[in-house]
Amino acid sequence: MAAYLIRRTIYGLFTVLGVLLLLFVLFFAVTDPGDIARKAVGERARPEVYALWKKNHGYDRPLLLNRAHAATDPRRYSDTLLFDHYRRMLTFDFGNSDADDSAITRRLKEGMGPSLSLTVPLFAFGLVFGVLLALFVAFFRETYIDRAVLVLCMLTMSIASLLYIISGQYLIGMLLKWFPISGFAFDPSLAARFLALPVLVGVVSGIGADVRLYRTIFIEESNRDYVRTARAKGCGEVRVMLAHVLRNALIPILSNIVITIPFLFTGALLLESFFGIPGLGSLTVEAIHGNDFSTLRTMVYLGALLFIAGQILTDVSYALADPRVRLT
Amino acid sequence: MSSLSNILVVLLLAGSIWFARVVSRDRYWCENASQLWRRRPIALIALALFVGIGLMDSIGWVGGTPGDDDVAALRSRTLIDRLFQPERFTEASYSAPLASVSFYGGQPLKHPGKHLLGTDILGRDVVYRTAKGVRVALLIGGFTSLIVIPIALLFGVSAGYFGKRIDDAVFFLMTVLASVPSLLLLIALVMVMGRGTLQVCVALGITGWVHFCRIARGETLKLREAEFVDAARALGVSDLTIIRRHVLPNIAHLIIITFALSFTGLVLAETILSYLGIGLEGSWGQMIDQARNELSRTPIIWWNLTGASLGLFALVLAVNMIADALRDIIDPRTRREGQ
Question: Rounded to whole angstroms, how far apart are CA atoms B181 and A309?
Fold first, then answer.
């Protein structure tokens, strides 16, 4: 297992290097750093201001290799955008925002708490309701209850998430006035009131696809031989579902959800932005609106890092959930 | 621009006729098609309607402009434009569905009782705008797939068939692209490439091709070991012919299912891009985004949101249902018991 993990981590490291190359191509080679500077200081700024901004943000260096100082000091050969990009991303030194010069690392730390307070309940409730509903449907498979829930799932899957948020805010926030329409508080008792609506909207918008997937997994499992054995020895249908099918269906369900756990940190883009939660999703949306390329770059990089971590986590959880799986 | 769109429509029609002829010669596909028609007649009719509206909105020509606007006279207008005559068929501002007076102020309308879903803030008819959104939505799903599928097939099939170095390279490329969360990659791509139909479609394509490629590669890996491929190789058939005659026809069904399933994902992803201000001009996502503050007005203005949402919902639902039925019909592994 240790050897497998080491091999896996090394491959993950190469993937990170590849992602960084992709980011470099996108944000430095395709985008002209001069354009970023011009957007930041304004079209009519004086050339000195423009040059100073570029210098302060490190955009004034050559792209690949610095030949200008190669003769005097060979070490400055690598004083370029490419090497600096790799160096800073790999050491988690993200620098300052292109839009308002605030330190990105500090803003990441500030945004993580609000993001987690939204995404963790969202994840937990979504998983519990999804699995329970799918178990219920699988129990009544090939009946009208099953058909009705499947049709309902198809309908909920066909609605845009934007619409869920808008109508949720209107119906529950404005008409029924159960919860505040938007806002956030760091005090836990107050935060629960603010978070209830986004969590509800998030769970409803995601549940259709989940239930369909889990139902397929459960039904596939309940056709196995061990289920027939359990029934033959006199197990009740409820016990078959909860004790045998659920336990064995855990592995395919795990592969579906473990990969999403790391993304709890990056927050939910739309939900946070609509409900005024000052998390990392809002930070990303702000970066898009403000042409803040350095923050956006950082968020994409972090997202990729978390995904790679999630993949390794998935493999480990396989081995933990299923004693037959050996990682070699 | 309009002539290009006309040519594309002709090419598309010619392509689908050719495709239909190829399909009609094959009994397997004929049976699948008729089974699909038996199972999902309403969804298929709805989709055909959408495609019809989309095509009508792609064929356009200059001339025959009503009114005396010189600038408008030089612009090409599509069949949908000519049907609705938006130059005449607008009001000053908001009006409720089928109303005879304007929403604010109560002045008499120019076309009382004719706006089935009212008008938006600029007085444009909501039914007309919704109809215009059909073409954009089909463009997002269809055009992107036209970019994606050939590239994904090229990479996926060659990686699976030739293996070794090619497979390593393609697999690494796929891992890197798949590691970046797709929405973030999409946003980054559109921010970097700029806003426009082609750019958004290419960005959606870059984020979407990995999925197709993975399926094509996996299935080709299996087929490479198949006995009929071995037999063909023993008979001295060249690699290209094996791929064309034995591999591609055997992964066609998976590509069709994946296309149908990813289509709705693409259309829905565009609404998020629209909210972020980087969507396509005239899309349903943009209409929803513009209408999101109208719900908080008193009295409430709901028709803009309803028009766009209904269009989006109907199209996505129809394609979802067709995709679901297709998967049941073609892929025996997911076939339910008792059927």
Answer: 13
Residue B41 has pLDDT above 70, yes or no: yes
Q: What is the pLDDT of residue B337?
A: 41
Whether the predicted pLDDT of B138 surpasses 80: yes
Each residue's pLDDT tens digit, A64-90: 766 666 666 666 666 677 777 787 888
Whether the CB of B295 is below 8 Å from some CB of chain A: the reply is yes
Interface of A with B in 166-225 (CB under 8 A): 166, 170, 174, 216, 223
Which pLDDT tens digit goes with each residue over B311-333?
999 999 999 898 888 888 876 65
Domain extent, residue B71, equals 1-84
End-of-domain residue from the set B84, B114, B143? B84
ipTM, interface predicted TM-score of the complex: 0.80
- For the record, the structure tokens of A184 come out as 């956030």
Considering the entire predicted model, what is its pTM? 0.84
Test A166 with B288 for CB contact under 8 angstroms: yes
In a domain? residue B111: no
What CA–CA distance (Å, rounded) separates A115 from A126? 16
Question: HSE (CB half, 13 Å, CA atoms) of A296?
Answer: 27
Helix (H) or strand (E) holding B60: strand B60-62
Q: Which residue has the higher pLDDT, B84 or A225?
A: A225
b/e string for B279-314 if b means 16 or more Cβ within 10 A? bbeebbbbbbbbbbebbeeeeebbbbbbbbbebbbb
| H/E run at residue B262 | helix B248-275
Cα–Cα distance for residue pair A105/A96, rounded to 1 Å: 8
pLDDT at B67: 58
What is chain A's alpha carbon radius of gyration, rounded to the nearest angstrom? 25
Q: Is it the case that residue B335 has pLDDT exceeding 50?
A: no
Q: Is B254 helix (H, G, I), strand (E, B) or coil?
A: helix
Q: How far is Cα A163 from Cα A205, in angstroms, rounded to an integer?
A: 9
Q: Is residue B191 part of a domain?
A: yes
Shared domain check, B72 and B132: no
Residues B189 and B326 reside in one and the same domain:
yes
Taking the C-alpha atoms of residue A163 and residue B270, their distance in angstroms, rounded to an integer, is 13
- Give the pLDDT of residue B338: 36
Q: Which of residues 147-186 of B touch A (CB under 8 A)?
A: 172-173, 175-181, 183-185
B144 contacts B197 by C-beta, under 8 angstroms: no
Sequence-ordered alpha helix ranges (H) in chain A: 2-24, 33-41, 47-56, 81-90, 104-139, 144-157, 161-168, 188-221, 225-232, 237-239, 246-257, 269-275, 280-289, 293-321
Let me know if residue B337 belongs to a domain: no
* Pair B288, B274: CB distance under 8 Å: yes
pLDDT in tens, A17-63: 898 888 888 887 777 777 777 777 777 777 777 777 777 777 767 67
Neighbours of B275 (CB within 10 A): 24
For B112, residues 6+ apart whose C-beta sits below 8 A from its C-beta are: B99, B100, B101
**Is A135 in the B-facing interface, judged by CB distances under 8 Å?**
no
CATH classification of the domain holding B275: 1.10.3720.10
B320 near A CB under 8 A: yes
The residue among B304, B298, B209, B301 whose CA lies nearest residue B262 is B209
Q: Which of residues 298-317 of A touch B (CB under 8 A)?
A: 299-300, 303-304, 307-308
Residue B222 is assigned to a structural domain of this protein: yes
Residue-wise DSSP of A203-257? HHHHHHHHHHHHHHHHHHHTTSHHHHHHHHTT--HHHIIIIIIHHHHHHHHHHHH
